[in-house]
């Protein structure tokens, strides 16, 4: 993060930059967040907050909060304030103004981040500062209403809808899904580059509703041929491993704590049934990938834990499927960069000023919209919910929201149908 000070003529008179590295690591089966200052000194109170105070939260929540705290630390350092001892209401107001303005102004001048998200951000800082004050000797009873930041009565007010979004424009809405025709264009672009890895990922996310983490965590032994009613049934097994990185996790599934967890007869997994045609193309891609990296002598960089056998007794060779050019598991960050290039080449709008790299979920949304609205064989919401493996059908309803363009097309088609069936309707 950088701070630039200018004079009245716009000349830069002072420039200061801070980094505050945030490091994630695993140790003895636990995931830790280590926050350093610019001199690489460990900030013990921050680490204690991230790894003890909120240790019961999910890893995703802890990562979100650690990012907010890190940006708060950068702002306070650049502004010359103590991050763990806020005593001035003016400073509190500046903190809130910083989170309201930082990177979230849309091109139209309004705020693209919702008031609820901004309140979540300031809530994290409020919670962190309360923790710091308790460390400094105050008790929990010293705090009054939840709106108060400190025992001395500094107020961190909630942001109202009108104050945040009075200049926002609903017309700037970017639809959260892709059309089948756009998927076709993406596949053609990837085929022109011989990027079969991208084609497989596109299909897994769009036709089978896989999340990007579930895709990147797939290994060779997760593609199986089962039998159902005496008929072959190609299936993907979604499951978590100790060797998985955080970007490879399958949502809502069991996370093993040790290799002994692999010894269970029925290791927790979710099953995704594939078509025979896609199964054949997928296995051909996997075989060619393994052969290529084996010929390069780097296949050992993609080793994954094997769940198909007793890991302690015999180590069966298993490998991740989606790899980068060095033979290591493809990271979500690297894939996001490629996906953004494909979207730009295909002329698909990006999530400007909202979530710039969160394009993967558009395929999953597109999967729901396809089977609900565009497919020749439309599915019920209940079937789509089962396909997407939602625990609650109310989540599926969130995926069924159509943009203005789609609603207009559907309404137009329905009116044409009515005119054909009942010509005198609009006479």
Q: Briefly, what is this?
A:
The protein has 427 residues and is mainly α. α6 runs antiparallel to α7 and α6 packs across α10.
Q: What letter string, H or E per element, gives the SSE order? A: EEEEHHHHHHHHEEEHHHHHH
Mean pLDDT: 76
Q: Estimate the strand proportion.
A: 5-15%
Give the beta-strand count.
7
Widest β-sheet, arrangement of strands:
5-6-7
Number of helices: 14
Radius of gyration: 26 Å
Give an overview of the whole structure:
With 427 residues, the protein is mainly alpha-helical. Among the domains are: 18-172, no CATH class; 218-328, no CATH class. It is built from 14 helices and seven strands. The chain has a three-stranded antiparallel β-sheet with strand order 5-6-7, covered by helices on one side. Helix 1 (44-53) crosses helix 4 (115-135) and helix 2 (59-79) crosses helix 4. The longest helix is centred in the N-terminal third of the chain and has 21 residues, at 59-79. It is globular and about 70 Å long. The model is unreliable at 4-9, 103-112, 139-153 and 158-172 (pLDDT under 50).
Keywords:
427 residues, mainly alpha, 3-stranded antiparallel sheet, two-stranded antiparallel sheet, 14 helices, globular
Question: What's the layout of helices and strands?
Answer:
Layout: E1 2-6, E2 12-17, E3 22-27, E4 30-35, H1 44-53, H2 59-79, H3 89-101, H4 115-135, H5 161-165, H6 180-192, H7 196-207, H8 212-216, E5 223-228, E6 231-238, E7 270-273, H9 276-295, H10 332-346, H11 361-374, H12 381-387, H13 393-398, H14 404-421
Antiparallel strand pairs: 1-2, 3-4, 5-6, 6-7
